[in-house]
Amino acid sequence: MTNSEPGADGDTGTGTSTGTGTDWYEQSGVRSGPHRTVVGPLDPATRLFPPHLVPYWSHPLVRALPDRRRHELLARHLYHYLTFTAHFETRVVNRATERIADGRAGLALPASVRLDAYRIYCDEGYHALFSLDLVEQLAEATGIPPLPYAFDPFLRQLDGIGSELLPGEPLLAQLLQVVVFETLVTPALNEVPGDRSVLPVVRDVVRDHARDEDHHHVYFSRFFERLWGDLPTPLKRRAARCLPELIIAGVTPDLRPVGAALTVAGLRADAVRQVIADSYRTRRSGDALRSAAIHTVRLFRDAGALELPGAAEAFAAAGLLPGPAAPPSSPAPPREP
After folding, report:
1. Which residues contact 186 (CB under 8 A, 6 or more apart)?
2. Mind listing the pLDDT tens digit for each residue in 81-91?
């Protein structure tokens, strides 16, 4: 996922540029970045994550918790963000990226595009490594252990979207997944690096990730142009109606670890349900959703996807276009904190 408007680095506008290029060997985090380490032990009041990015932080039941428990909630919110990142990069992004790199994406791709896919594959593996490395370092420095996290339910739900809306096209569904998720805007990538109240090593790790992801945004935007142009019209129609649901999956909070963290913080089951209901009242927040998806929707619109029968209506019903949307449904458990 990206954290800003993609820049022009590596983008010649020809449709063949990938956004990584030969400067990857000097500029990518895995090739040139330092090992980010925690200098500990840490003061219990050290802020590990911006509270305003935690939807339940200001809830009265959470505010009433002891300071130590609230500090643990911030730590575990960060742990979940990093752990989800590690799973997602390796089990979703690299699942599709390896197919592109190995020439098994169903497209005739130049060697340069495939080599860049391998570079991204290395980047994403490194993002998983430094994310889990930071969790382990912080757990030792703070004495706050991470809670168990199961990624499989999210992955089943994500793959279920493709199975339902693109039956018989698992490869296409996986390629569309990675295009969507690598072009969405992530608030954490955007805001954590500049928040001076957050522990510097956390800011540095998120900044390292964000720099790589900006290049990935360019790559997968270009890749989508190739992919979309190669699809027959009937398949484009089916895929266009699948895209809004993939976007929704990308921005809907995962409520399982939220509930687990609140429970460990000392809230009873009924209080946990109340906090979640109040803090995640709807499945989608219109302004936040459209902001996160602005580049993704623009990419699909520029490719003509929204001009296909039923596509614009599906995007509008999902709340991805300006104007009235379908009534929001109750919260569902997927994506990031």
Report:
1. 1, 2, 3, 213, 292, 336
2. 999 999 999 99
